[in-house]
Amino acid sequence: MKFARGISLRLRITLLAGAILIFCSIILTITASYNAHSQFTYLTAAGPISAHLSIAEIDTPLPLITVPQAELSAKAVTEAKQKFDKTSIIIMFIVTILGMGMVYLFAGRSLRPIHNLSHTISAITEDDLRDRVPILNTNDEVGRLGHSFNIMLDRLEKSFSQQKRFSANVAHELKTPLAIINAGIQVLHIEEHPSLSDYAETLATTDRNVNRLISVVDDLMTLYDEQERLDIASINLREMFESITSELHPILEEKQIETELGCGLLSVLGNQVLLYRAFFNLVENAAKYNKHGGQIRIKTEVENNTGKITISDSGNGIPSDEMQQIFEPFYRINKSRSRKSGGVGLGLSIVKTIIEKHGWRISVDSEFEQGSTFTITLSNLNKSAY
Length: 386
Known about the structure:
Elements: H1 2-5, H2 9-46, H3 67-123, H4 141-190, H5 196-224, E1 233-236, H6 237-247, H7 249-254, E2 258-263, E3 267-270, H8 272-288, E4 295-303, E5 306-313, H9 335-340, H10 347-357, E6 361-367, E7 371-378, H11 381-384
Parallel strand pairs: 2-4
Antiparallel strand pairs: 1-3, 4-5, 5-7, 6-7
Helix pairs in contact: 2-3, 4-5, 5-10, 6-8, 8-10
């Protein structure tokens, strides 16, 4: 087994095919030799039978066969058998060697795409995942392998890009409040006799940015804490959404946004705190990024044992080329607008994480300048709601 691991696939295929070829050749040679021996034995045994013919049956005189001539004939038959056996064995080895050579050549030709694939793969590094394996115009295993490998590279490239953006965004979100706190402290150091108002201003700035840091860290923990256990309880959806709209009343009143709540699905089983946070984020976004005098429609319904919760707004909508990215951490459609509203781009990521922790799905449908609709699908409603 250790020896087999150290040789190439091409040689392994050749040896395997050679072993099969040798086995088949030996069987054929033994069979041929056995049949030949049987024929020789039959002919030898048939010779003396002619001696028993009656005189009346013989038209021509027969030569007189002496004992030495009979022994010589038997010896010739034995030599013929041995010669046939040797010739068969020699031909068997020649055919086997030629067959193994042909297998080796054709195996090398067939495995050449795999060699090229291996060479291309070895040249790809984690710093540059843009290279792709050339796709062969074949529908065999090698062609499918190259196609599957390119799909894997696409996923890896996307994952690495997300990680790089995530690291950069985390560094930025943590660095900004720390830099502001540090600047306030430096101002106090520069002034010889800071006033109470200077201390109060620095303290207020520090408090505000520390809370911002805590908020970012809490959000990150919510996103990536896979060990968190959910405390499941029955949740009245109407009461939850009424509480959310009541809490958001100042911004709804300021922008004169009308809310509409229709509850066909009255309650679900889930974590009260997490679901409140998820639905609050969705309704808050619908209010913040809505038009003045717009509408927010919240609807819960049951259809074919599947629950649906939809939150629609009449805002600016989401550009189609950004629909797949809105659930990524720190992603903001309009960075300046999000910054002014106090967001860091974690809201929808947290929503998606909470929804998926409950075994549900979230999707978005948006039309630019017309509004967006977020749909939460609760499959197998018997286990998640009643």
